[in-house]
Specification:
This protein is mostly beta strands. 8% of the residues lie in helices and 46% in strands. The strands form four sheets. Strands 2, 3, 4, 5, 6, 7 and 8 form a seven-stranded antiparallel sheet that branches. Strands 9, 10, 17, 18, 19 and 20 form a six-stranded antiparallel sheet that branches.
């Protein structure tokens, strides 16, 4: 009797030979057919989804950059030097681009210090000296800024008559909590000072030329004010929907109303800085006014 196993093996061998012959049989044009192989590159980037423009402006007809608005500086002679944003843990003193540091050695400034859980202003003598061997962005020479040690210095200010030495009422300070509060799209913070509630929030707006901006709003006692705004941008990989970081909120000028100090990311120009807004010099119908700030060109 025939062996079934041998029959099966013989059929398999015959099938393999026929498949090999068919694979290399000449085609109608005399060419030899090639084996077709499909494969996938697991390292290939996935398809990029289309951009969804979900920007819906709450406010329109805002001034274009450079046109000026209610955030103009109240005192042209006022000067501010941010310390917290330039102090490196590896260095004893902060350093700044020589062209951006507007201070002379021997001057007396007013410094906002954090010490033992309290914030207060104190008169402070300052000096500057070259940071030898260091060249910053744009091939700019840098200078050290030195000052009296009276706690952890947040900023120095000069020429703002509403500010005096002494304790300030603090509702929020990043130096106390060590928390980062980002003033980004959707942020909403409520601060109570005396009998009044203040709502600080970040929303969206359109400038007169159609530019998209992030808008920092302050609301209290039936008043709504556009504090400031900066460039909004969104693509597949990048989202700029942030004003900056809240550094301090409370009462600095002693009038029982909210004052603000926050950083600002200037995406429209590529720089960064910080801004001080006080309530005492605010115009009628407004809650705060920018009295001083410090700007850096960045990289």
């Amino acid at each position: 009797m025939p062996n079934p196993l041998k029959s099966i093996l013989g059929c398999l061998v015959l099938f393999g030979v026929m498949a090999a012959l068919l694979l290399f049989l000449p085609g109608q044009d005399g060419s030899t057919a090639e084996a077709q192989t499909t494969w996938s590159n697991t390292n290939a980037a996935p398809p990029v989804p289309p951009v969804v423009d979900d920007f819906v402006p709450e406010f329109v007809d805002l001034p274009n950059f450079g046109e000026g608005d209610e955030t103009v500086t109240g005192a042209p002679q006022a000067k501010l030097i941010d310390i917290s944003g330039f102090q490196s843990p590896d260095e004893q003193w902060p350093s700044y681009s020589r062209d951006e540091l507007d201070v002379r050695s021997g001057e007396t400034w007013l410094g906002l210090y954090a010490s033992k859980g309290q914030l207060q202003f104190a008169s402070t003598k300052v000096s500057r000296s070259p940071r030898d061997g260091f060249i910053g962005p744009g091939d700019q020479p840098y200078d050290w800024l030195k000052y009296e040690r009276k706690g952890e210095l947040i900023f120095l200010v000069n020429g703002v008559p509403q500010l005096k030495p002494g304790k300030v009422t603090t509702l929020f300070s990043s130096k106390h909590t060590h928390d980062r509060v980002s003033l980004e799209g959707g942020y909403k913070g409520t601060f109570r000072l005396g009998d009044n509630n203040y709502v600080l929030r970040v929303t969206t707006g359109l400038q007169r030329d159609g530019g998209k901006v992030n808008v920092l709003m302050l609301e209290s006692s039936g008043k709504t004010q556009t504090v400031t705004f900066n460039h909004y941008y969104k693509d597949h990989n990048t989202l700029y929907n942030i004003i900056g970081d809240l550094i301090w909120a409370g009462d600095m000028d002693g009038d029982g109303k909210l004052d603000l100090y926050f950083s600002d990311y200037g995406f429209e120009k590529g720089g960064f800085g910080s801004h001080l807004y006080l309530s005492r010099p605010a115009a009628d119908g407004k809650l705060v006014r920018r009295v001083a700030g410090f700007d850096s060109a960045g990289c």
